[in-house]
Specification:
The protein is of the alpha/beta class and 410 residues long. The protein has helices at residues 6-9, 15-28, 47-57, 72-86, 101-113, 128-136, 152-161, 185-198, 255-268, 274-285, 289-311, 338-349, 375-391, 400-409; strands at residues 34-35, 96-99, 119-124, 140-145, 169-173, 201-205, 231-236, 249-253, 324-328, 351-352, 354-355, 366-370.
């Protein structure tokens, strides 16, 4: 039967589903697939966080409905985090709300503020919910191309100049998923000045604030004077404390947007399970050596992956942040595109990755590799990739067009 639901018709087929299906079929055949596809941390949360969860679960009073805005102690812990990390003083009552992960929070905010036909500016490539949260809500998306060939501030100015009606909001994500691009506080200053002048909201996704590998911690847009007049920021415990399945995130900043999000959430959820929120409070308020250990773990994996790919003849930029490498498709396979090459990697090298086109049209020509396997597994993947590229004739010095064509035809 032809699809008749308007919102569903606006969602294209999920590109990652094809690779995921092939991965599942391979594993069903008993093949050992090394999975760099999903940004799904492989380590458990810090022990003191798990201990607090168990302790709270054993309290008979902890199993009732929670509160949609988040328990007061957790909102205060978020405010304390912003104070010590960014020097930003937030009101936990008016400027902070707890969400069921930042993904759900962004989708609910889109429902709260978007009217049919509203224009929202979204980087491309980007994490899918950044665009599709607003598409589901009935908005219209104007893409801002990002990458080494584009100046994001120029793209923002151009989009506003040529948009009718004026855009409602712009979404930012730095450190970026999937590209791992970072920005400084001067960039946020320029964005805030521009968007305040034009009356445009800014929605910042800072999920990878603590996953960085040099001595320059990523800034928050809320550090910019005047930012809270127009901006909110989403953060999450998923990557920082290896808690993706717990679904705990936060939205902080502009009180008007926070109130709108709170209004929608009051109708659609009762908040995260109270013991999860109590344990999340322990994560933010407790010892933070686990965060540095997380950083060093991903840095070590990154270094092994990037050096190993280079040794195999595949030159990939070294990401300064996030848990991802944004890898250009090898020249021998450029004509095939990211989806076909990712399927080929799965078939021939037993390595699963995310095709760049799944993050938007400007992601074509790239793959996203997540650092979610241990170093031993990464080295095994590198051996498999090196052997595959050599067999395909895609090693340095080979005719790239001929090599790719031969392998894709086989």
């Amino acid at each position: 039967m032809e699809q008749e639901f308007h919102r569903i018709k606006r969602l294209p087929p999920y590109v990652f589903a094809e690779v995921n299906a092939l991965k599942a079929e391979a594993r069903a055949r008993g093949e050992d697939i090394i999975d760099f596809g999903m940004g799904n941390p492989d380590q458990p949360p810090p022990p003191h966080v798990v201990t607090k969860l168990v302790e709270t679960i054993n309290d008979p009073r902890a199993h009732r409905y929670s509160t949609s805005r988040g328990i007061p102690g957790l909102r205060k812990a978020v405010a304390a985090y912003y104070g010590r990390r960014f020097g930003v003083d937030l009101d936990p009552e008016r400027e902070i709300i707890v969400t069921l992960g930042s993904k759900e929070g962004l989708a609910n905010l889109a429902q709260a503020i978007t009217s049919p036909g509203d224009i929202v500016l979204v980087p491309n490539p980007s994490y899918p919910i950044h665009a599709f949260g607003f598409i589901i809500a009935g908005g219209a998306i104007r893409h801002l191309p990002v990458g080494p060939d584009f100046d994001l501030m120029e793209q923002l100015e151009r989009a506003v100049r040529h948009s009718i009606p004026k855009p409602l909001a712009v979404v930012l994500n730095h450190p970026a998923n999937p590209t791992a691009e970072t920005v400084g506080l001067d960039f946020y200053q320029a964005v805030v000045d521009f968007c305040r002048h034009h009356g445009i909201y800014v929605i910042s996704d800072l999920a990878y604030a603590e996953v960085y590998f040099d001595d320059r911690p990523p800034p928050s847009i809320l550090q910019v004077p005047g930012a809270r007049e127009i901006a909110v920021e989403f953060t999450s415990l998923s990557k920082t404390y290896s808690m993706p399945g717990w679904r705990v995130g936060f939205c902080s900043g502009n009180a008007k947007l926070i109130a709108a999000l709170a209004r929608v959430k009051s109708y659609v959820d009762y908040g995260a399970f109270t013991p999860v929120q109590v344990a999340a409070t322990a994560a933010l308020n407790g010892p933070q050596d686990c965060v540095e250990e997380m950083r060093q773990r991903y840095k070590s994996r990154r270094d092994v992956l990037i050096a190993g790919l280079a040794a195999a003849g595949w030159q990939v930029p070294c990401p300064p942040a996030t848990m991802f490498a944004w890898a250009p498709v090898p020249p021998a396979f450029a004509a095939a595109g990211s989806l076909e090459f990712s399927k080929l990697l799965l078939k021939e090298a037993k390595v699963a990755v995310s095709p760049g086109v799944g993050f938007g049209e400007y992601g074509e020509g790239h793959l996203r590799l997540a650092l979610v396997e241990n170093e031993q597994r990464i080295r095994q993947a590198l051996r498999n990739i090196k052997a595959f590229l050599k067999t395909a004739g895609a090693a340095p010095g080979a005719d790239p067009d001929a090599a790719g064509a031969r392998k894709l035809a086989s």
